Amino acid sequence: MQLDRIVHFHKTIGDKTRIRIISLLKSGPLHGQAIAGKLGLKPPTISHHLTKLKEIDVVYQRRDKNTIYFYLNKDKLERMAMEIIRIGSDEMFAKFDITNEEKANIIRNFIDSKGRLKSLPAQRKKKLILLEYMLRGLEHGKTYQEKEINEHIQQYHPDYATIRREFVMAHFMYRQDSIYELNRVDMWPV
């Protein structure tokens, strides 16, 4: 489960109308007009909120003749809600059992004499160790413009877009509106 997906789920759920819709659908399927009537809202407003809930797969629809009924996907709702509790033990945050000597060997095998990355390995453990290596020189608590991150990465590898994306996907960094910041070390996977 990626952190971004968990955040997106909670942002989508974090709306009073959507919570009220979920509450109504817990009792069983309803069509849009019935939901609008029970909540005292207009059908287009309900359609908008149902679309958002369908995007995160918490609500699904079935047609019965000319009427579309909306159902609550209770299993998905429970699984996604519980992911936030599992963050600390989830595999994506599990620390590798690796010694400093093993890390040094991996870095030696993939970094040339000028300190540049020869190639990004496919094996996850090695890739994460090299990504961590490339974070050297960046400071915790400091925000960076995308251009600054690109320049930093180019010291190690010409494909800064791929490496920058890997930093975010591996949860070494957080990105919002082209501003980057290092995540806390306890969120790092290595």
Automatic annotation (TrEMBL):
Domain of life, source organism: Bacteria
SUPFAM superfamilies: Winged helix' DNA-binding domain
InterPro entries the record matches: ArsR-like_HTH, DUF2087, HTH_ArsR_DNA-bd_dom, HTH_MetalResp_TranReg, WH-like_DNA-bd_sf, WH_DNA-bd_sf
Entry annotated with the keyword Transcription: yes
Keywords of this entry: DNA-binding, Transcription, Transcription regulation
Domain (HTH arsR-type): residue spans on this chain: 1-92
The name this protein goes by in its record: Metalloregulator ArsR/SmtB family transcription factor
Protein's organism: Oceanobacillus jeddahense
